[in-house]
Write a structure and sequence with these properties.
Largest sheet: 7 strands, mixed
Number of helices: 13
Distance between the termini: 60 Å
Number of strands: 16
Structural class: alpha/beta
Order of helices and strands: HEEEHHEHEHHEHEHEEEHHHEEEHEEEH
Strand content: 15-25%
Radius of gyration: 22 Å
Strand order of the largest sheet: 4-10-9-8-7-5-6
């Protein structure tokens, strides 16, 4: 089959005409046309190779042969809905259960992170019989209406905050209200949630759930301070609510040290509901909600069947099982630990050379590079971040993107096969570009004088 059926200009013109303009392209001023991929590499219509630092969805690498083989084999045999008895769905649930705390033992399979988070919201409300939800500032949990309502990142640009939604401060120890010099930022930030719960109660309302990413991604690759989640869970449970951990971005070993990012908060903490998605199917639409028997029982007791046409189908579960096999066989958690530590170390060394680098943070292959125009004031360097992203693509064929409230954080969430050499190449190129930007800025300053 031809990889390039249309000229790039024709493809772009047809997309502009046929596809909704709110569905934006990467590098919209000069889009890249990708026609194939393998591992951590993307290839354009001219067979030029790009290093992919963006695609956390393609968790074990683009077009991994074990994944495509599992998909094709099962598709050739059977694909039907989960109302028929089949081995794959139960074998897959059993494999996932082995990675989770014992109390998280009932699974609902869906097709996307948005579907998973929407279902988690339903579970929480059915179990608690309460409506209100606490979320973190700058959070994003999906594109369904129910999730836009609990995503400050989205609703502030649209209809605004609903009365049943309550926003807690992002536990950012770099630029937040409690920083790295605070003696116990985890407790301090958790207490802001306690205060919020009390405020909700004074209004005569009740909390159904605290809903948060285990490591806030859109918020800027934030690492939650130790003790935060356990203390928040204590406060939320006391208020009759449940704790929902959104692992759509961070699950399946991306941190290296832990299979799930919530485990980074310590063995004493366990959410009541966990959602998972993106990396689960390595590019195939596969997602899931896991919860306790008690919460699942309350959902069943409402008398309304939950049916998802494609959720948990044999092909999706075969792919999910194959992803777990590859993570184990290729020691991708170990790779995330080693390569992530090397990348973070190299970027930290770069920080001593470039004043524009305010902070390097992350765990495993979940890393953020925050750029600032002033280290003391921590003023976001949004334009520099955008320029760096653009030049990395155009000069070095390296794909990265930005996140954070001011789009000033370069995020690194590459496929888990990302190598030491890839990390070194990325940092060398960042160093070269920042050096050039600084030299140009200095020249402009001298000309102004």
């Amino acid at each position: 089959m031809a990889l390039n059926k249309l000229r790039k200009e024709e493809t772009l013109a047809m997309r502009m005409r046929l596809i909704g303009q709110s569905c934006r392209l990467f590098y919209s001023d000069r889009p890249v046309k990708i026609v194939r991929a393998r591992g951590q590499y993307l290839f354009d219509e001219n067979d030029q190779r790009y290093l992919d630092c963006i695609s956390n969805v393609h968790h074990v690498g683009h077009c991994h042969p074990s994944i495509t083989k599992a998909a094709a084999t099962q598709m050739d045999l059977l694909n039907t809905n989960a109302r028929f008895l089949h081995d794959n769905i139960v074998l897959y649930a059993d494999r996932l259960a082995a990675t989770l705390p014992e109390k998280l033992c009932v699974f609902y399979f869906v097709n996307s992170g948005s579907e998973a988070n929407d279902l988690a919201l339903r579970l929480a409300r059915q179990y608690t019989q309460h409506e209100d939800v606490i979320v973190l500032d700058h959070a994003y949990h999906g594109h369904l209406m129910s999730l836009i309502d609990i995503s400050p990142y989205k609703f502030r640009k649209l209809t605004g905050q609903k009365e049943w939604v309550h926003v807690a401060p992002l536990p950012d120890t770099y630029r937040g209200m409690y920083r790295e010099d605070h003696p116990n930022p985890g407790q301090a930030y958790a207490d802001t949630v306690k205060d919020l719960i009390e405020e909700v109660h004074r209004k005569g309302r009740k909390i159904s759930a605290f809903f948060a990413e285990s490591l806030p991604s859109v918020g800027g690759q934030i690492i939650l301070p130790q003790g935060y989640s356990a203390k928040v869970a204590e406060y939320v449970h006391s208020a009759g609510g449940v704790f929902v951990a959104d692992e759509v971005q961070t699950g399946f070993g991306r941190l290296g040290t832990h299979f799930w990012a919530f485990q980074q908060q310590g063995e004493g903490f366990c959410p009541d509901i966990v959602t998972m998605g993106k990396p689960m199917g390595n590019g195939h639409p596969l997602a899931c909600v896991v919860t306790t028997a008690e919460i699942a029982g309350a959902f069943t007791a409402n008398g309304v069947e939950y049916f998802n046409t494609f959720g948990g189908n044999p092909v999706s579960c075969a792919i999910g099982l194959a992803v777990l096999d590859v993570i184990e066989k290729e020691d991708l958690r170990g790779n995330a630990t080693r390569v992530g530590a090397h990348l973070k170390d190299l970027l930290t060394k770069l920080q001593t050379r470039h004043q524009v680098i305010g902070e390097v943070r992350g765990i495993g292959l979940f890393v953020g590079l925050e750029l600032v125009t002033d280290r003391e004031k921590k003023t976001p360097a949004t334009q520099t971040a955008a320029l760096l992203v653009k030049r990395l693509k155009e000069e070095d064929r390296i794909c990265v993107s930005t996140d954070g409230p001011w789009e000033s954080v370069l995020k690194f969430k590459p496929p888990m096969c990302f190598s030491m050499e890839d990390a070194e190449l990325v940092v060398q190129c960042i160093d070269r570009i920042l050096t050039d930007i600084e030299a140009r800025d200095l020249k402009l300053e001298k000309e102004d004088i």
